[in-house]
Amino acid sequence: MRASADGDPADSADPAAPAARLDLRAPLLAIGAWAGALTGLAVAARGAALAGLALGGVVLAACAAAVVRSRARGRVSATTGPAISAAPGITATTAVAVVAVAATVLLIAVLRSEDVGRGPVADLAARRASASLRLVVTDDPHRVTGRFGDIVVVRAQVRTLEADRRRWRVRAPVVVLGDAAWSGVAVGSTVEVRGRLAPADGDAAALVDPRGPPQVVAAPDVWWRVSAHVRAALRASVADRPPEQAGLVPALVDGDDASVPQDLAADFRTTGLTHLLAVSGTNLTLLLAAMLTLARLIGVRGRWSLLLGALTIAAFVVLARTEPSVLRAAVMGAVALVAFGPDARRRGPRALGVAIVVLLLLDPRLAVSAGFALSVLATAGILLLAPAWCEALGRWLPRWVAEAIAVPVAAQVACTPIVAALSGQVSLVAVGANLLVAPVVGPATVIGLAGGLVQLVWPWAGGLLGTLASWCVAWIVVVARHGADLPMAALDWRSGPAALTVLVLVCGAVAVAGPRLVSTRVRGAAVALALVVVVLVRPPTPGWPPSGWVLVACDVGQGDGLVLRGDRPGSAVVVDVGPDPRAIDRCLGELGIRRIELLVLTHFHADHVDGLAGAVDGRAVGGILVTTLLDPPGAVDDVEAIAAADAIPLHTLTGGQHWRTDGIDFTSMWPQPGPPHPGPGDGSTANNASVVLLAVTRGLRVLLTGDLEPDGQAQLARATPGLRVDVLKVPHHGSRYQDLGWLASLQARVAVISVGADNDYGHPAASTVEALEGDGTLVFRTDRDGAVAITQRDGVATAVTRP
């Protein structure tokens, strides 16, 4: 093979040449940097910072000594040499460089962690002390539904701190957990507040629980004000469009996904389109390509075009916010541009390796960021895997079609294990969905941004451009909705080490064998047909549902979704619908439920009501019963809107009511009688207003308790002395807050805990499970057992889990 003047192999027509020309030095440096960051973070987390600093210093010193000795003996060449070579000097140089980079990133990770985990902010947080703080807001406020109502999360940096009659000047990141008054604070604002500090995980020195509203003492700098005006103008340009389109255009342009409906976001996850809702390298690449194309048309060339590209990147970062995900996207977008053009197979991996090293030097915590891993894997997949797929498909398809298929396939194969670990599912329609939306993503992004900019000076024209962008995203919505509704749009996948190892091996096999499988027209068509059949035909699950089932606790994640079988085929009473419309829809579909005689929502927390759209979709619903406490109000509005859209009667339910529906006798035991009323939004009040039902069906007494907490349980125990049941749905996902004496008094043979795997609340509590089992109750939980079906044999309750 012929080498070029700079020591790199020259291009060749030999098909095997690209593999030989692959330069592994930069990727090896990236791997070393990643390993160093992980080691440094682990060392710092275990409180061994001094040992980590010593280790990094010793390694760096050893690397320096090795280089000096090697140069002194003349064994190391100062030239770059061939990209892949067996020459000992090059191998030694690369090895030393990898170790040196790893040690450097390790040192930075330890120092950065020490900087965050030490100092007055962290010390006061450890004591949960109160302090007065001056903060600079660094990210947009985000409203989050917590255990006890909605909170507004604001990231900020502490500049001054006063406590214990002392004052410090610091620069420490914190997270403020505020109320609605914080939702209007602009990025870049300087605010003063007094609050209680608490320890924080991750990259924050403390959590701040503010006492009172923020006092803005300084407005944002001019670039933040301009960014805010552009973002507001972008939203205004699509304000009159349907809600899904109006929420999606800003998300696509600058990552502003606050207005994207939750059920649409769930469909995006199922169809592998979630990357469109976040700032990614794709956004920047599209905008840069449009800007540089426009520059060429008006005659901008050479260094001026490079300057324009740099300014575009800077403007994009400010527009989308200077958080780590945006900086990562900017760098990955730049990598994509570097990889374009001739010699891309060689330049791309180099650029990616350098980008990874630079990013980890700037922020070692990216090493444990799922978003960073996904960006790297997607880019690496496109650079390393896509060429083989493109070459194989190009033998019988037009080149542009082969490229259009190869890119999403490569990215999906590379990212699937991480996506499965995060979401618990493997999308089978992701490649097809990305192919279908690809033609409109670019126009929607560029036109959407243009609409926001024009809106600032000419609202009518901005609205026109916004409408054009919304028409583009309307197609994306159609693809996401219909793709997610396919019978086998996604496979549920466990996130344990064994399951993920199997998935990694499967993806590796697909990456290696896939190009050969699609290299001819016949094999390619066969693979495509097989995929279509797999997606459209749901295979039967042997033994599920079990014959004569009485109750099924659906596996809906961290929430409740319970189904009582009615007398008529295909009918049921549903109690709560979980947080995910798709999960409850899938469960009802597997049970063959076509009509819901009654749908009871025990209370309005998201983990009990957000799946409502999926439960009612395509099914007749006789009515919806809800508790009298209308809290939180946003969820109440959503339930009322869905009920009104499908003309479903909506009624409140209190204790003391009796009725019979579809062969099931019901007694509502809680809440106490009274008219509908708003709540304080503190979480526990809503839990204690949960509807509690006693259902008698097929000889079994089943108690469904919602999220009733100890206070409510104690009141219910006093109101219903001597209550005995066969089956208990354990309150509040088995949390440790239980009246264990009351639970024991029920003498249930079987208890079901509806709970999500690896949830953040510690549900179910070991103390609750052990207490129930100690009383002789058989305990089943959906996080480990999957869906749980209750049957009865000779009048005795038994349980069958989904195989």
TrEMBL record:
Give the bilayer topology: Multi-pass membrane protein
CDD domains in the record: ComA-like_MBL-fold (cd07731)
Taxonomic classification: Bacteria, Bacillati, Actinomycetota, Actinomycetes, Propionibacteriales
Which domain of life, per UniProt? Bacteria
Name where it mostly resides: membrane
Bilayer-crossing residues are: 26-44, 50-68, 89-111, 273-292, 304-320, 326-345, 366-388, 400-423, 435-458, 464-484, 496-514, 520-537
Q: Which residues form the Metallo-beta-lactamase domain?
A: 558-755
NCBIfam families membership: ComEC_N-term
Q: Which Gene3D superfamilies match?
A: Ribonuclease Z/Hydroxyacylglutathione hydrolase-like
InterPro entries per the record? ComA-like_MBL (IPR035681), ComEC_N (IPR004477), Competence_DNA_uptake (IPR052159), Metallo-B-lactamas (IPR001279), RibonucZ/Hydroxyglut_hydro (IPR036866)
Q: What is this protein called?
A: ComEC/Rec2 family competence protein
State its location(s).
Cell membrane
Sorted UniProt keywords = Cell membrane, Membrane, Transmembrane, Transmembrane helix
